[in-house]
Amino acid sequence: MKPKVFKLSKENASFFFEEFVPGENVGRIFKVSRVDYSKQSTIQKIDVFSTPDFGKVLAMDGMIQLNERWEFTYHEMIVHVPLFAHKDPEAVLVIGGGDGGAVREVLKHRSVKRVDLVEIDPEVIKACKEFLPSTASKLIDPRVSIFNEDGKNFIARKNEEYDVIVIDSTDPYKGAGGSLFTAEFYGSCSSALKDGGILSVQAENPVYDSKEMERCFGEIKKAFPIVRPYTAFVPMYPSGFWVFAYASKTVEPSFKGEESRVKSIDGSLVYYNRKIHDSAFVLPTFLERLIG
Fold first, then answer.
1. So where's the catalytic machinery, residue-wise (predicted)?
2. What are phi and psi of 72, to 5 degrees?
3. Which CATH class is domain 71-291?
4. Which of the four, 26, 71, 156, 191, has the lowest number of CB atoms within 10 Å?
């Protein structure tokens, strides 16, 4: 089964169309140089295709998950904000994120000794290892353990095991990520965190997904007393204006430790820095009214 590629121009080029929200009237197109991989797994449709301007692109159920050119903005912000807000992260759980980008960023922290990755669909990991090594290369690191199961079931069995949990899931309204946007799930995350533990969640955007974003924050607030929205410029996603949720039982999201913590890895950072950490929590007025 091929991805939904169609002809649009006189030179008979191929294009991939993505709806920003299923059933809505707005989307975008990518010119396709080559279809590298296309498979219907038991869970979702997985496509990897090459583009002239953005490198390889990963799509699931017709929705873009990453492109090689800009994936760093998303992965750096969903990972480094919570890890630098923790004084000494050693055990980290990533739920979703079968492309490996979040795991790659987590392992830049020298304090990290263990990373558990829970990806419900093993076909995502297989495809990314073969076609997206720029994100998936660290999945073979000996500190990484991979579990192919529903994150909701996995987290329900854990108690005070992790310093940081990163929820790098697909969107809530389509695909395998829906069970990861509930108060029950976030309550399990709270139980799975050690004292001083931190949760970060990809929480959609306020332009095309404001209702889902608002619901996401409402559910997180049922499980955590400290919930702080933060934002980043993520051009590979709809609107380019992406929102994340920081949550903890006791720890505010200020940067912890010495500046040397960032300097020890800043040669490999492209978006995140010490100033971005603080400024990401400054919200525009409309967003503060909506979820602040």
1. 168 (proton acceptor)
2. -60, -35
3. alpha beta
4. 26
Q: Tell me the β-bridge partners of 200.
A: 166, 246
Whether residue 292 has pLDDT greater than 90? no
The one catalytic residue in 47, 116, 121, 168 is: 168
List the structure tokens of 198. 């931190």
Q: Where are the domains of the chain?
A: 5-67, 71-291
Does the active-site annotation cover 168?
yes
The DSSP annotation for 70-94 comes to THHHHHHHHHHHHHHHSSS--EEEE
DSSP class of residue 249 equals S
**Annotated binding residue 18:** no
Residues forming beta bridges with residue 32, ordered by sequence position: 14
Q: Are strands 14-19 and 226-233 parallel, antiparallel or unpaired?
A: unpaired
pTM of the full predicted structure?
Answer: 0.93
Question: How does residue 175 score in pLDDT terms, banded at 50, 70 and 90?
Answer: low
Fold observed for domain 5-67: Spermidine Synthase; Chain: A, domain 2 (2.30.140)
Residues 120 and 176: their CA atoms lie apart, in Å, by: 8
What is the token pair recorded at 202?
């990809």
Closest CA to 165 of 121, 220, 211, 234: 220
- DSSP summary character for residue 239: T
Q: How far apart are CA 152 and CA 291, in angstroms?
A: 24
Q: According to the annotation, is 254 in a ligand binding site?
A: no
Q: Are 135 and 71 in contact (CB under 8 A)?
A: yes
Q: Is 266 annotated as a binding residue?
A: no
